[in-house]
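Methods: example folding runs. The two proteins below were folded one after another, and each record is reproduced exactly as written to the output file, sequence line first and structure-token line second.
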Amino acid sequence: MLGSMPISVGMDKEMLLMIHGKIKLAVLSKLAVLQGTLRAGFQKVPLKTILILQFAAVFCIGAQEPVGEVDLSQPLTLEQCIQVGLERSTSMRNARLNLAIQELRVKNARAQYFPQIFSNGNYDFSDRVDFGFEPENYNLGLRGQYTLWDNGQREGGFAQAKESLTATVSRNERTKQDLILDITVAYYDVLKRQELIKVSEQILARSQENTQRIRDFVEAGTLIPADVATAELREANDELSLLNNSNSLQIAQATLPRLLGLDPGVLLAVSVDESYQLYQERGTIERVEIPIEEAIQIALSTRPEFQERQAQIKSQEWSLTLAKLQRWPRLNADVDYNVNLDDYLRERENFSDFRSWSAGVSLNFTLFDGGILGNRVKEIGMQLEQTRENASDLERSVALAVRQAYLTLQRSEIAVDISKKQVTNAQLSLDVIQGRFDVGKAILLELLDAQTSYAQALTNEVNAFYDYKIAQTRLQDAMGVLQ
């Protein structure tokens, strides 16, 4: 079975944990090998279908039990936030409406193959009565019309509508991935702000402790009152940093529900970040293992923009064909059935004497329109060339986006390692200087400088880790595999 294939190529549990979410970049390199095997055995299966099935298999392996109705009063996981956003956000609701609108347009295009039936009735009143007419006259009729031949315009309109539907489906998939990216970034921003508050509280507590210790030294005559002022200044700066981080957290907490389609005033609690806890315990992170060229090839095969752009090209090609067909005649059949209702209501007999019917065909085509049709054909042709040019540039743009995201992730991975070393060294330096200061072998300036370095190292560590998590997500988005 296809669902078991990723396991057969050596996918272990650690690989499944490589990247937050159900699709892991570390698995993609293994899937590329599997992709070649599948193509060798199933030459008729499109490449995109194979990739989608492979990613679906990975998704099923890493997926948890499906979450039902999300309880907003409980801490939310990232998956739950994404679920709420996909259901309630304005962008996804509009995407579903756009899809429904386009489906109606397909139905309307299909309806052109059927005849049209109209009913008509009229009432006339006149003070002048001629032969065969009364002051009040009633008529009732039915009229049917059917296009016998239009040189393929109906077929073209129907095909164009279906291509537009395909483009809408692909556009909605891009909208979905954009929303998932925004929600993920906002979710990690909340987690980052929470961790920064913990850092600020830790640094402030240490500053307050040092300030009190310096006051004790002043009372003992070891230090002067100016040293207390210096320590209090440091404490005030740390308190201000805590205030700024608290304000940033409130903004992040208002941004997240807005993306989920909720009121920004709704306070959402987020679940504890297990990935950050694991990083703190292990001191290491998992790194991307897929080669950059392979990542680009996956993006070129899976990004929904390519299918959308191809559908747009086909739709405009049909639009150009339809514009050219406007020059050709259109053959219609008409049937009319009428009843002189007023005469029949007076006589109440011989209904056939008061009814009539007619049938005929009509051929309509434009002899002269001042060049409108010709200009319309030229306009659509130019628009088609623009779309084709944009499509040719899309591949280069996607390749650039993947390369940028890939390099950013590599930089973020290195930054995490550096920040971890900074914290270790800064803490060691602070502990040593703190001990020397307590026995009078270090001056206050050294202690405050060590505190500043330690606080900056802790802040850098938090920022580096969540920048790394966001960089992972952006690479998945650039590759078109964000789920």
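Second run, written to the same file directly after the first:
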Amino acid sequence: EKLSNREREIDHLQAQLDKLRRMNFGSRSEKVSRRIAQMEADLNRLQKESDTLTGRVYDPAVQRPLRQTRTRKPFPESLPRDEKRLLPAAPCCPNCGGSLSYLGEDTAEQLELMRSAFRVIRTVREKHACTQCDAIVQAPAPSRPIERGIAGPGLLARVLTSKYAEHT
């Protein structure tokens, strides 16, 4: 119970501190600055006491690690794959008419449901660079039902019909 009271007091002081910081940001006042300094000291003291009760180590000088960005895991290799290659529309540079050389490719994978089996549709868009003006030419990406989504139209249709039409 003592620990929960401390946690409530910490939350209350944190809320007051945030409010005073907002007030201080709008108008400069010595009273507000002194009150903020006092509340920060109280907050640090209470956090240290709370951490000693819970066994955690609190050091305000140590910053928390930054949140890592989430990356999408690749589809399992066991799923069958179909590959679509998209080439630039014209074999020459649209700017100057010069010849194009292979530069690389962008790949995007989409999960699709075909005949009650999952399949990965891999779209490969080749990039070509002009040898004369250094322009980069690439076929446009095909449209998707959900922008940056991994579900294909067949899979979305199956999920929606099973959710809304078949379960009434």
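Comment on the second run: The mean pLDDT is 81.
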